[in-house]
Amino acid sequence: MEGFSVPVEGWDFSWFRDRGTEQRPPWGYATLIDERMSAASRALDLQTGGGEVLAGISKPPPVLEATEGWPPNVALARRRLAPIGGEVVVVDEDADLPFGDASFDLIVSRHPVTVRWHEVARVLSPGGTYLSQQIGAGEKRELREFMVGPRPVPDARRPDRVVEAASAAGLDVVDLRTDTQRVEFFDVAAVIVFLRKVIWHVPDLSVEKYRDKLFELHNKIEMEGPFVTYSKRFLIEARKPPWQAR
């Protein structure tokens, strides 16, 4: 099947042009990051992927670090971020951050798999900001249930639970916005490539195991038109109190 031969390193989704569409949240994450980075002095991008978003900023801060744990993405990110002075550190998404206390006045993260809130609070300087666009509960539920059947929606991705976790780490949540976006897949190859990139939807995806479901999906698209599902996104901004040492 075509979708199993397409490279899936990084978070560049340009391959999907003419094969699928996804609406974007109204707040414009890339623009927000560009604005914040231009005013920062020491910034960190957690789980940067291939560095796609960070590489687009117009005015890098004097100190710019990024973390990434997947080796193919590390190589991409280093190539992309070197021209703007960005250093990429290999860090697993569940690991402690290899930075000193109060190292950064700005931390950003787009679609983190996990957030170590106490680590974020530790490396933020007093008065510093964490700004992140995250994936909400029920993300592309229609597609996941078509492939693997009904599954419980994880509470951990509910925005209110995320706010609780940030607050428990000593951060003040100053902004929270949510949005739902329509997603369309025009052929089964687009679905396969998406599921290979975003592996947590169907972790055991393979031709052998899912051949019947993929042919069923192919026929459904041929007969009914694009497969429609929905993305869930939220934007969270949290600040470390100016008086808080850690």
From TrEMBL:
InterPro entries assigned to the protein according to its UniProt record, in alphabetical order: 23S_rRNA_MeTrnsfrase_RlmA, Methyltransf_11, SAM-dependent_MTases_sf
Enzyme Commission numbers on file: 2.1.1.-
Biological process terms in GO annotation: methylation
Does this entry carry the keyword Transcription regulation? Answer: no
Q: Identify the SUPFAM superfamilies for this entry.
A: S-adenosyl-L-methionine-dependent methyltransferases (SSF53335)
Q: Which residues form the Methyltransferase type domain?
A: 44-130
Q: Report keywords, A-Z.
A: Methyltransferase, Transferase
**PANTHER family named in the record:** METHYLTRANSFERASE, METHYLTRANSFERASE TYPE 11 DOMAIN-CONTAINING PROTEIN
Name recorded for this polypeptide: Class I SAM-dependent methyltransferase
Q: Which species is the source of this protein? A: Pseudonocardia yunnanensis
Taxonomy, top ranks, is:
Bacteria, Bacillati, Actinomycetota, Actinomycetes, Pseudonocardiales
